[in-house]
Design brief:
The protein is mostly helical. The model has no long low-confidence stretch (mean pLDDT 80).
Length: 427
């Protein structure tokens, strides 16, 4: 307890640095993972993807990141068991941030797409088990989170299958695919905007003081979506006014259609970046929020507390830095390795992933964006046949998921003992 009173500010600065490191790891790995479909389908260049992610990842983290942060902060372990030793909780959360951040940076350097959610939750469980015991872990909560890791790839894969199949039936398998693309792509724009706007307005803006009723949220979301749809309709019809099904065909027969879907992918890339920021920023700032709250209350571990104003922006900035500096390696792995992506296939995978992630974020359930995206890409692949998938790459990705959770736990144990030794020496 004395160390909190005497060195609370120093502990908070170090914890913020570890949280920033974790956020950089998220940006380098998971954000690159999320934007990989846009780059792999050649709808966006790497530089364009980075700019889009910078803007919308930060917006998602700041505007809609509060719900999941609460789950990571106090849903995985029973923090009340640390009431008599709050310093142990602080060391543990710091070790968890450092462990997960270290693993993510290593994986990003190697080009492995791993789960940031696996990393931080494994690290938290690791330090809790050795500091207090297995009873410190809320195994029911963990069971629900682990269950979501299994369910969400299936859900996103099903969504992607349905979206891509609908595009095939409404556009590609018709006598006038380009004409139908001009008709139906604006509707896909409406759906995409609706998914993001509704959850953001209803769930994500509460902590900045904007409270709307369900009816008001629906009306505002529909209005924003309608504006995007109308704007998209006029843009597409002007941009492709002189392009017809007779004069615009490539070797696959759908060159003009795919270019229209490239336009749509700009919207879905924004949606995916926003969705990812809203969910995965919690992996960096959830433990940091627990540390800040404990220090602010002089060692008292409260059941509920507000997220400090500076924590969400810190996580958002860290994610942006990680993507800009190290994101290209994982982006290349995901964008080209699993299956051949075109803009229409990438759109289906992105919209399915964004929908699943945003819905999970709104319910406060931390899911793995990596697993969700891979599930969506697999769904698109299944729509084309099993031969379209590179099962070797999929197998390696799944293996990296299995390794990540124990790796996070082991590193957290090591760092926890180091921090305890430093604290004992300092005192």
């Amino acid at each position: 307890m004395d160390i909190i009173a005497n060195h609370g500010t120093l502990l908070l600065i170090v914890a913020a640095a570890f949280g920033f490191l974790m956020a950089i790891g998220i940006g380098a790995n998971d954000v690159a993972n999320a934007m990989g479909t846009s780059v792999g389908s050649k709808a966006l260049t790497v530089k364009q993807a980075i700019v889009i992610a910078m803007i919308f990842e930060f917006a998602g983290a700041y505007l809609a990141g509060g719900e999941v942060t609460d789950t990571i902060r106090k849903g995985v372990i029973d923090t009340s068991l640390f009431a008599s030793q709050p310093d142990v909780l602080i060391y543990g959360m710091m070790s968890a941030l450092l462990a997960a951040g270290t693993w993510l940076l290593l994986a990003s350097y190697m080009g492995w797409p791993v789960s940031t959610t696996h990393s931080i939750i494994g690290a938290i469980i690791g330090f809790a088990c050795i500091s207090v015991g297995p009873e410190a872990v809320d195994w029911d909560s963990v069971q629900g989170i682990v269950g979501s890791w299994l369910v969400t790839p299936f859900i996103s894969g099903l969504f992607a299958y349905m979206i891509f199949t609908s595009a095939q039936r409404l556009i590609f398998d018709t006598e006038a695919p380009l004409l139908n693309a001009k008709r139906f792509v604006p509707i896909y724009m409406f759906i995409t905007t609706m998914v993001i706007a509704l959850v953001t307005i209803k769930k994500g803006l509460k902590h900045i003081g904007l409270h709307l009723t369900t009816g008001e949220a629906w009306m505002l979301s529909m209005a924003l979506s309608a504006i995007v749809m109308v704007g998209g309709y006029y843009y597409i019809n002007r941009r492709f006014a002189n392009v017809t099904d007779d004069n615009e065909k490539d070797s696959r027969g759908f060159g003009g259609v795919e270019r229209i879907f490239s336009t749509l992918m700009v919207i879905t890339a924004c949606a995916m970046a926003f969705a990812h920021g809203s969910n995965d920023v919690a992996n960096a700032i959830g433990p940091l929020s627990a540390i800040a709250s404990t220090i602010e209350n002089m060692g008292e571990i409260t059941a509920t507390s507000k997220i400090a104003w500076w924590i969400l922006p810190l996580g958002g900035v860290g994610i942006v830095v990680g993507l800009a500096t190290m994101g290209h390696k994982v982006m290349a792995t995901v964008g080209t390795g699993i299956t051949e992506l075109t803009p229409s296939r990438g759109f289906a995978a992105q919209l399915a992933t964004a929908t699943t992630v945003v819905l999970a974020s709104g319910t406060g359930l931390p899911i793995s964006t990596t697993q969700t995206l891979v599930g969506a890409v697999l769904g698109v692949g299944f729509a084309r046949g099993i031969a379209a998938l590179n099962l070797g790459v999929v197998r390696n990705i799944v293996a990296s998921w299995v390794v990540t959770l124990p790796a996070g736990a082991l590193l957290a144990v090591i760092f926890f003992y180091i921090m305890q030794s430093i604290a004992t020496f300092a005192s």
